[in-house]
Amino acid sequence: xxxxxxxxxxxxxxxxxxxxxxxxxxxxxxxxxxxxxxxxxxxxxxxxxxxxxxxxxxxxxxxxxxxxxxxxxxxxxxxxxxxxxxxxxxxxxxxxxxxxxxxxxxxxxxxxxxxxxxxxxxxxxxxxxxxxxxxxxxxxxxxxxxxxxxxxxxxxxxxxxxxxxxxxxxxxxxxxxxxxxxxxxxxxxxxxxxxxxxxxxxxxxxxxxxxxxxxxxxxxxxxxxxxxxxxxxxxxxxxxxxxxxxxxxxxxxxxxxxxxxxxxxxxxxxxxxxxxxxxxxxxxxxxxxxxxxxxx
Length: 296
Hints:
Layout (H helix, E strand, L loop, with lengths): L2 H24 L10 E2 H8 L3 E11 L3 E4 L18 H12 L7 E6 L2 E6 L1 H9 L4 E10 L10 H20 L17 H17 L7 H22 L11 H10 L1 H8 L13 H17 L1
Parallel strand pairs: 1-3, 3-5, 4-6
Antiparallel strand pairs: 2-6, 4-5
Helix pairs in contact: 1-3, 3-4, 5-6, 6-7, 7-8, 7-10, 9-10
């Protein structure tokens, strides 16, 4: 190995590390813009439908924005963040300087975005050297959620939430019975949880009315369960303590922790036969439990 080339590679690694440090300083207010996407986090969010092997293709490097296992070691621009990456990084850089053949990297493709399965250091070196494309063995993952290279994890969460809202409105036909403008979430999966609440309420109502339709159950749930709990949350000004959360977020928290609140702060009355919540009693008992729970 040529010592001069090794020295050049070492110097270029230092430059890349300094760029990574500079980016981290200038992105303090919006760190997610420089944060590499985790393939597993993305896969969990989008719930892929299928995988297909697509063979070897030339891929634009600026569309590679995530990694399967090295998302903590590099920035979104594949600048090295850790000193322990030096040895491997500079050896690959020397190979590039000396025009040594390197095998194709391995990528996942989701929409217009690529994630590294194998070859993170090679992508990092290629970007640092100004290379525009790289040969890659591609496995394509299909999803109803479309990704683009400029997306942050926060952008994707918002897109998934919007997709889930559209799905529950269009596929269930509940938009005429439930005012979804009053139900806004900050976490994916919440609308599916709401649908389970409606289905559970439908089962409850069927005990007295065997032919209760989903639309009727949804309307009853919205008026007699959801809105009364939201009224309590607003009256107690709980939303002011959690400015990054919505009323609907807090509603789900209350419902998920109902049994724990019941155990810790005394028994709560069950839903009455007509499906209504005894709001006056809950206002006195439930809010006390919520306040104590959030302070603990």
